Structure prediction request, 264 residues.
Amino acid sequence: MSPIREFLIDVNSSSSSSSGSTNSSSSSSSSSSSAENSSDSDDEHNLNILFPILQILLDGRKRHRIENYIEVVHSWTDAEFKEHLRLQYVIAVTLVDELANSGVLPEQTFGRPKISAEWSFYITLWFLVNTEPYCTLSDRFDVSISSIFRVIRRVMAWILTKLDNIIKWPEGPAIIQASQGFENKREIRNCIGAIDCTHIIIQQPKENAADYCNRKKCFSIILQAVVTSNMSFTNIYCGEPRSLHDARVLRRSSLHQESQNNKE
Prediction:
């Protein structure tokens, strides 16, 4: 029997005894016995109702965190790693080393053990790929929700500093390589990029919400991207509301302005 149930039984037993003593002093022996039996029945009924409620209130929602999930990640094959985190393992290792040497993550020497650069990077990747809520990430990676928030914010800020070095328009010999790639794969000549737009889901804006509501009845902004034949990004433009046509998004982007100023 659980401590909660024992406590409730003791409380109800004391209440029944007190009620029985009071009734015996003011009524006959038979009436007292009948009243006591009725009281016991009511107490048992109340006990059956209160016990599940108190059990829920005292226990709350139990968190089932996964311990040593890093070992699960290390057990993945290269194909499984890319399937789960959308990134090749070799590239992830390189980025983890850069993150560890970037100085973005705090070097604490007290309190709980710090979250490693590898763990921080995998947490952020999982969030970007699966868009899970912080509480779910906390259970999966055995890290507090507040730490999950700080880790994602720091790693994302670090990733943004690398955009200009990674996403850049082909110049010089890179233009010939990009063109040759499309010609070899699809027999398309004089092409250095494939362009298209996609939608990024957002929360309903407080202002001009109708402009951001797409045909699927959710709110989004438009991301315009240009990629090479090997799927490497060379240009991105993001932030326009979904109500704009792709052609208009292109005309508003810096890519279109640059193409008009430098047609060669």
